[in-house]
Amino acid sequence: MDNLRLNGDDAAKLTLRSYIGGSTHVSAYADIENKHKLLLNSDEFTIFLFDVCPIGIVIYRSNGDCVDANNAASTLTSKSIDELSNSNFNDLKSWQDSGLLSIVQDAIKNNRTIDSDLQLQFATTCQAKWLRCRIVPFTFKLERYLLVMFSDITKKKDIELRNQLYVEELQSALTQTVALIRTLSEMRDPYTAGHERRVGDLAAAIGAELGFDERRQQGLRIAGYLHDIGKIAAPAEILAKPGRLSPVEFELIKGHCAKGYEILSTVDFPWPVALVALQHHERMDGSGYPQGLKGEQITLKARIVAVADVVEAMSSHRPYRPARGIEKALAEIERGKGTAFDADVTDACLRLFRQKGYEIQD
Fold first, then answer.
1. Is residue 68, in this structure, part of any structural domain at all?
2. CATH number at residue 223
3. Which of 72, 276, 329, 331 can bridge 314 by disulfide, Cβ–Cβ 3.0-4.6 Å?
4. Which ranges of the chain does DSSP label H, i.e. alpha helix?
5. Distance of alpha carbon 254 from alpha carbon 290, whole angstroms
6. Cα angle at 301 between 300 and 303, to 5 degrees?
7. Is the C-alpha dihedral spanning 336, 271, 278, 327 positive or negative?
8. 125 and 246, same structural domain?
9. DSSP string, 99-165
10. Which 8-state DSSP code applies to residue 284?
11. What domain count does the chain have?
12. What confidence tier does 41 reach under pLDDT thresholds 50, 70, 90?
């Protein structure tokens, strides 16, 4: 193999025999230690390590011709060392199908080390395997070579996939449960059916505009879907009343914030859903309810849902008034920017509608 290495079996035997034979006739510890150091620094020991290394190693010339391969590479690819040694990476279909060939060509062209996880099918009778690959270009005796190292991570990938499917199943169950709860709530208040869903969707869109990642957007969406759940405890005749509420009736309605918190705090959500239900009627200047909180005392998600709640409510029909339209709703939050409503949240909502064409879906 172009003198890059000796035959692995011969090298291993030579190494072990030299070590054992040279040590049996010495008694001084210093002599043994010196021989041990010489062994560790020997070419034979390096070759031995190459053969027994559990990581697959294949050496190629820059033109793609294989120079050498170790036993682990043979096991992982289900090919003999001779088969590997007579191959050219440009002709390997598994490399082409997996994208490894383009990565190798990139490593050669730019002379850089590349790490990648790839799924390779080495033969029609061999199950596809996930391999963690490292491609390292190097120079030996003025000639360019490529070191390809890979280890089998199929089991790890299978576990990751199962975990991902499990998380997706839990997420689906959570979404369906939230939808069911929202439907039950809307059945008691049919005149505002769809309000919670539209608030949740708008809140998530505002979150995205503020730079929230998908997980935090999902938390906003669910918080919006459930922010009025406390109304389930309010008398149905008050919820459906076509005229203005009396002071006593309004106080009963205001109680839905605390009731929503009481209901939702029994569930261990990964987001502050219960707190949003409690605080979504709080205002930045302390004029809101139920606690009269100010500024940063109000959680950011509740500030977002507060803006989404006002915009959706004003632009939609209610039993006691017709819809006022989106422009009046936007003008309302613009007037309250920095006083009633968080300034950054307000700006994000205004951008969504006025610059990015966001529409509230029925």
1. yes
2. 1.10.3210.10
3. 329
4. 8-23, 29-40, 43-52, 71-77, 81-85, 93-98, 100-110, 154-188, 195-209, 214-226, 236-239, 247-254, 256-264, 273-279, 300-315, 326-335, 343-354
5. 7
6. 65
7. positive
8. no
9. THHHHHHHHHHHT--EEEEEEE--STTS--EEEEEEEEEEEETTEEEEEEEEEE-HHHHHHHHHHHH
10. T
11. 2
12. low
User: How many residues does the structure list for the chain?
Assistant: 362
How sure is the predictor about 276, in pLDDT bands with cuts at 50, 70 and 90?
very high
Same domain, 118 and 171: no
The predicted-structure confidence for 298-308, as pLDDT tens digits, reads as follows: 999 999 999 99
Residue pointed to by tokens 């039993």: 319
The tens digit of pLDDT for each residue in 139-168 reads 888 888 888 888 888 888 888 889 888 888
For residue 131, what are the contacts with CB-CB under 8 A and spacing of at least 6? 56, 76, 117, 118, 119, 120, 150, 151, 152, 153
Q: Are 189 and 349 in contact (CB under 8 A)?
A: no
- Neighbour count for residue 76 (Cβ, 10 Å): 21
From 50, 59, 37, select the one nearest 10 (Cα to Cα). Answer: 50
Sequence-distant (6+) residues with CB within 8 A of 330 are: 311, 349, 350, 353, 354
* Burial class for 55, CB neighbours closer than 10 Å (0-12, 13-18, 19+): middle
Integer Cα distance of 306 and 285 in angstroms: 13
pLDDT tens for residues 52-103? 888 888 888 888 888 888 888 888 887 888 888 888 888 877 777 778 888 8
Q: Are residues 133 and 168 in the same domain?
A: no
- The residue segments making up the domain with residue 53 are 8-155
Three-state SS for 68? strand
